[in-house]
Every structure is written in C-alpha cells, then in structure tokens.
Design a protein that fits this description.
Shape: globular
Number of helices: 23
Mean pLDDT: 84
Strand content: under 5%
Structural class: mainly alpha
Number of domains: 4
Distance between the termini: 35 Å
Low-confidence stretches: 1-10, 76-84, 289-295
Helix content: over 70%
Number of strands: 0
Length: about 425
Amino acid sequence: MTAPGRHRIADQPIGRRIAQLRARRGLTQQVFADRIGKSHSWVDKVERGIRSLDRISVVHTVAAVLGVTPETILGPTTSRPEPATDTTTAAVEHLRAALARYDTPTPDQPAPPVEDLHRRIQYAWTAYQHAHYPQLLRMLPDLLTHTRHATTSDAPRSDAVGYLLTSVYRLTAHLLTKLDEPHLAWLAADRAIATAAGHPRHTAAAAIALTQALRALHRPTLATRAALTAVPLIDPATTNDAAPDDHALAGTLLIEAALAAATGNDPATAHDLSERADRHAASISHHQRRPDHGDTTTAFGPTAVALARAHLAAALGDPHQAITHHQHTTASHGWRELPAEHRAAHLIDITRAYLDTGNPTAAAARAIITADQIAPAETRTRPTAHTVVATLLRTAPTPDLTRLATTIGLTPRP
C-alpha cells in the first residue's frame, strides 16, 4: 500500500505534494512555516500553487523538514535542477579556498604592481556586467590572492590598494550571491566592509554586496539596516563632500533596502525608500548626458529604479503589477542601456512573477528565452534560473523552452 501512495504524491503539483507530506508528518502550516523560517502566508501560497519554490536552498530546507529527498519535492517529471554544473561547483571551491587563505607574498612570488591589479580588476568588473561568469570564476581566486598580497607587502598600504581589495571582495560577493552561495557571499561582503576600514565611499559600495547577501540569507531586517546605515556616509543631502557617483551609491543602497523591506512584508517602508531612490536617479538624469550610467559598478539610474518597482511589487505579492512595471520599463530606451547582467537577471526575476500569477503564459517562456539570448550564463549557470526553467517546463512548455532546458541539462538529450 505504501508504494501506490508514494506514486500518488509524486503525481501531484509541487504545492499539493508539500501539503500532503506536511500532513503526513502531523505538522500544521504554522509549525511547518516556523521550522523552515518562512511565514504562514508563504506556506499557504506555495501549497495552493500561487507561489513557486524558486531557490534550490529552499527546496533542500523544505525536504529536510519533511524528511524526504529534494527529488521527492521536485517530482520525477524533470531532472533535478542542480545548483551548478560540475565545472562551476569546482570553480566555487577554488574561490572558497582563496577566501580561506592568509598567506603572505614571498621573495620568489612578489605582489604584482598596483597598476596591473587595477587593470585586471576593471576587466573583472566588465566580465561581470557582461555575465561572463565562468571566465570570472577562473579569474577571481588569483585576483583575490594577488590583491591581498599587495596590501600585506612591505610597501606602505595606500588608499588606492585598499580600495582595490574592497572592490575584489565586493565582486566576489555579488557573484557568489548569484550562484546561490549566500553564506560564502556574506563572508566576502563582510571582508569588503572590514577592508574598507571606515572609508565612506568604499564602505557604502561594500554595503551593497552585504545587503544582497543578507537578503539571499532571508534576513530582511538585517539587510535593510545594513543598507540604511551606509546611506548617510555618502548621501549628498547629508555630506559636504559629495562625489559624482555618490547619488548612484546612495540610490542603489536605497533600492536594496527597499527590496529587503518588501521581502520582510513592510510595504510602507519599501515604497518610501523607492521614492528616495527615485530622487537620486532624477539628480543623475539631470546632471549626466547618459542618465542610466551613474556608476560603472551599479548601473543606477531612472531605469534601474523603474525595474526595482517591478521587483518590489512581486515581493509584496502583486505579480500582475510587477508585470505591468516590467512591460512599461523594458519598452523604454533606458532598458537597452543597462548592462547585460542587469537585464538578464531582471528577466529571470520577472519570469518568477509570471509564475506567481498562477497562470503562466507563453510570455513567461519568452522572458526566460530572452534572458538566455542576452546573457547565456545567467540562465545556464544560476540555480534560480534552473528552477524557473524546470517549473515552466511543467506549466507552460514551448519548443524554445524545451531546447533551453535540454541545453542546461534539465531534460534528457535525444
């Protein structure tokens, strides 16, 4: 009798499957929510199919609490979306090892010249903005080691060298957050904050990475606090030494704080912070000829704020409003000015909003296909994208989506 029961559960939609497994363990929705660190509303929406499981880490947490394997949660109809390919997993381990090292430069391997490091770090940021993640993963371990050696060499540490190390730690944290390694991302972001050593602009830039890592760790209150603590350091309205990029840094921090507040179900704070970010974007638009390029590492501007409003609506449980913001903003000229990484990441997130409507259409598949065309590594490397593609394959399959799923490895090759 047990085997047929298992088959019936496996044939159910993922939300219904979770509800039945939860009931079998005698857990109420509230108790289950407490054990996985989510709200009762979140559990209810997942079980009713209104909200999807969009992170591999969440799938693992749910499976552990229910005493089953992640494959039981995901179901047998598609291959389990792995957190990353074997190559990416190995590269992340190399990066982990680089973060764990504390060696110093030796006479036979001296620290490289600061000018060389500066050039390599600029190239690494460019690779990130074009979503060349496999290439970036290969670069970062040595770049971390060499930049750290430059700060520990016998030569006096300059402000420029300190900023370079902060910048590498920031970049590492951003990439690890994308690859669903939030704990390791938090470590890198915390190192960036420490390396900034209180320098206002360096600290503010590092706080962006820290806020993103804390959001990925489902710590919205801490994320909001981290961002808002950093804003006064560089907010032109509260400082006497404003730099051209300060509006971009302050605006990006406010967007991150707003997203964290929305995740924590605080719509009033989220909307207030987004309005403050919009004022910084307006200032950039007024003073610069290319309004959507306020800072080379943030791409902050009016379009970034408009896209953030779509993410805020989705986080606050209004996917239809999120899609409306998305459609309006992506039709603008500013959309095409954003880096490939920014656009593809947004499209993956908006695909999740389409799924959250409970009735995904071909538009959802088009969004994820377009993301793959803009920046293939966004869809082929990121675990979140794998989960979205796997879910769409069950709910709104199209020939293009099936081809993408096969490329990623989510369906058997013919």
